[in-house]
Amino acid sequence: MEPKHNQIYSSSFLFIVCMMFIILFLTSCSLGLKRKGSVQVENGMNQKVSINYEIINSKDSTKLLLKEDFIKIVNQASNEARLSCKYKPTYEPFEVILLMNNDTVKTIVNFRAKNGFGVPNEESKYAKFRGTELFDSF
C-alpha cells in the first residue's frame, strides 16, 4: 500500500496539470490572435477573399481583442471601404491594419477599385470603433 503523503502529492500534481490545460485552452480560444496574419472578408462580388492584417498596440494600451470582436470589426471596416467605392463590384481589399488604444480601435483598410473609366486605383479607408461599434469613418 502506498503511503498517504504520496497520494496527496499525486492528486495535487494531477490537479495542477488539469488546471494548466484548462487555462491553456481558454486563452487559446479567446485570445488566439497573432500580431500579423490573414483574415477572410468579402470583396465587391460578395466572394470571400483572404487579406493580410496587422495589429498595432499603443504603448499604454492594455486592451485585449477577442477573436469574435476582431472579426466583427474587420468585416465592418471592410464593408465601409466597399461602400465608399463608386463601382462596388470592383472592390478588392488586400490589407487591414488595426491601431489599438485602451478605448478605441482605429482601422485602415487598403484596397483596389476601378474608377468610371475602368482604371484601377489603390485607396485607403479609415474607421474608428469603440468596442465593436463604429463611430467614425472617413
Descriptive overview:
This protein is an alpha+beta fold and 138 residues long. The chain folds into 2 domains: 30 residues; 104 residues, no CATH class. The chain has 2 helices and 6 strands, in the order H-E-E-H-E-E-E-E. It has a 6-stranded mixed sheet with strand order 1-2-3-4-5-6, covered by helices on one side. Strand 4 and strand 5 form a beta hairpin. It is elongated. It starts with a helix and ends with a strand. About 4% of the residues have low confidence.
Write a brief caption for the model:
With 138 residues, the protein is an alpha+beta fold. It has two helices and six strands; from the N terminus they run αββαββββ.
Summary tags:
138 residues, 2 domains, alpha+beta, elongated, six-stranded mixed β-sheet
Radius of gyration: 22 Å
Number of helical regions: 2
Strand content: 35-45%
Question: Main sheet, how many strands, which sense, barrel?
Answer: 6 strands, mixed
> Poorly predicted ranges (pLDDT <50, ≥5 residues)?
25-30
Shape: elongated
Q: Tell me how many strands there are.
A: 6
What is the string of SSEs from the N terminus onward?
HEEHEEEE
First-to-last CA distance: 74 Å
- Helix and strand composition category: alpha+beta
As for the number of domains, it is: 2
Mean pLDDT reading: 84
As a percent range, the share of helical residues equals: 25-40%
**Going across the major beta sheet, what is the strand order?**
1-2-3-4-5-6
